[in-house]
Amino acid sequence: MSTTLEPQTSPPEADDPWYIGWRYERREGPDGQVKMERVPLRQEDLLYPQEEDFIVENPAHETICAYLRDAMFQYLTNQPGTAVLHDCRVDWGVEGVQPLGPDFSVFGNVHGPWDRMRGTFYVAELDAKPLLAVEVTSPTTRNIDLDDKVDLYFRAGVPYYAVVDPRPLPNGEWEIRLMGYRLDARNPESYFRARLDGRGWLWLDTVRLWLAAEGKAAVCYDELGSRLLNHVEAVQAVQQAQTRAEAAEARLNEVEAELRRARRRKKP
């Protein structure tokens, strides 16, 4: 499935070979000694990454991902058998589909032990059930995210593929556009485009979450419409709740003390 793309400024790979990122590869020298040599990544390496690749990210991408990581990890990992991965290479175990590196991926039916020190998650070996893949586009990955990965995630059996697409503004900031691609049994050949609701929100039914674009931020809401908090906000909410509880307890102690004093004054 292909998507019409807007013109993009070509990244300056010719001027900076390390623009995309790098990896270390084993090289044998003329003397037979094996050394690790740093080599620049190519555009196709963004589509098919290897473990330990270093991919250069921009601040906008990191800002968006930081919230999504906190929100989805806190909300979804409480559900039994659910695994939420960020920047983890995924081997789908599907013939013809090489391992990909989603910004976020969510799986169900993950009950057995698996090696969290590895940079690759093996779907078929764990009998895991793909639920969601999310990509946050950047100038170097946008064409891949909106074209190649639409087809590859479909072939990998991912039921829902969501794209958070930050579009640059003249003032150097950005605004968010959302896109969703959903499996439909009535159309076994490709995804269909999911519709935004009247608020511009995208319903991620496979994980029971809303994804919304609010200015520069991509924000998640639960089924009841409550915004999911990032880590800092969650810590602050707990601290505020503790402060309110302590204040209520102190006030209760004051009232009880006042009642005791009043009873003593009434005694003959």
List keywords for this structure.
268 residues, alpha+beta, tt1808, chain A, three-stranded antiparallel beta sheet, 14 strands, 28% strand, disordered N terminus
Account of the 3D structure:
This protein folds into 2 domains: 58-228, tt1808, chain A, CATH 3.90.1570; 230-268. It is 29% helix and 28% strand. It is built from 5 helices and 14 strands. The longest helix is centred in the C-terminal third of the chain and has 36 residues, at 231-266. The chain is elongated. The termini are far apart. Mean pLDDT is 87; it is low at 1-10.
CATH class of the largest domain: Alpha Beta
As for the number of domains, it is 2
Question: Architecture of the largest domain, CATH level 2?
Answer: Alpha-Beta Complex
**Alpha-carbon distance between the two ends:** 90 Å
- Work out the helicity level: 25-40%
Largest sheet: 6 strands, mixed
- Whole-number radius of gyration? 25 Å
Category from helices, strands and their pairing: alpha+beta
Output the helix-strand order.
EEHEHEEEEHEHEEEEEEH
Q: Give the total of beta strands.
A: 14
**What do the pLDDT scores average to?**
87
